[in-house]
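User: Okay, second chain of the day. Same drill as before: sequence in, structure tokens out.
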Amino acid sequence: MANMGLKGIWGLEQLDKTGIATWKLGVLLIGGGALFGAILIPILGEVNPDSVLAPFYTARVVALLLVFFPFTTGFLVFLTFAMVRTVETDLGLLSSIDDVVDESIKRLRPTKKTLLTTTLVVMMFNLLLLPVINVVPAINAMTLNMTITESFSAIHSSGLVVNVLQYPLLIMNALAGGVLISIIITQSLSLMHAARYIKIDLLQLSQYSAIANPMARLFMLGLAAFSVWPPMILFIDDPVFSSALSWLVLLVIFASFPLVFLYVYPILILRNRIRDEKQKELNIVFQSLKGNDEAIKAISIQGLGRPTSTADLLTHQMFLESRWELPIASHIQNLILFGLLPPIAWGLAATMEYALYG
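Assistant: Same drill. Structure tokens below.
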């Protein structure tokens, strides 16, 4: 049976029903995409040397892009499967705490309207990043200030390899990206619902880290993907391509902020609820210490089979004050570790560049 997040998405739903492990799907999709691109290199031929795009599409650029686009598509599909399966598992664990999470799980299925809208938006975003359209300043000089009509004409006259790069492969990326963004939007809405309505138990706050798991995973995967940027620049060693790639990375990072916030917002909702519940319990403890019998009856440590002493109240107060309000607290060590990945990768790239070129 397919996961709720993939129901209605033909192809992915069928693949999910096979029950193949996520890591195996990753190997097949990412490795298969890179292999597919490598096979295309000798098949599609070279760029027409008379084309105005020939200076941009050098042999190394073409080889890199032919591998990179199918590789990225495979990675996006793998990321979709990984996020769908893990988020539904996280919410499934939370449903054992409160039945209201079952309703949140039902909200994980993206609507057709959401799928269509996000796919069209990603398609337009990919279109604006075509090397022949005057959007990226570093590439603008290469386009000779051509109009959009002249740009598409230049693509068509550049040979089969450029047409495959700009149309089929970009469409594959747009479809995969559109599905992934649809999943992110619906998961965010589902997590918001769970964060708003799940009951708060201050004695077991660690279980609420499930709400923060998607954001932590996306953050770590983003850092891993971002760290690939310097080696790609080193491979091409072309000022125009390097500058264009830098602009592209910055655009992708800027466009990713809203998506990251969609996963951060449920954490903030839950954090506010935990903070309010914590303050409410601390107020009860304070009233109990002042001798309010009604407050003592309402305190959460009642039911121990003996009268609640002042020492019990003070211990409970210290316990409450030590409680983390952010459900992401249990992920901090992992986030710090993965935060070191990009600078380490960049340092290695700089070392390789120095060793190769002195």
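Residues 284 and 290 are 10 Å apart (CA to CA).

User: Thanks, on to the next one.
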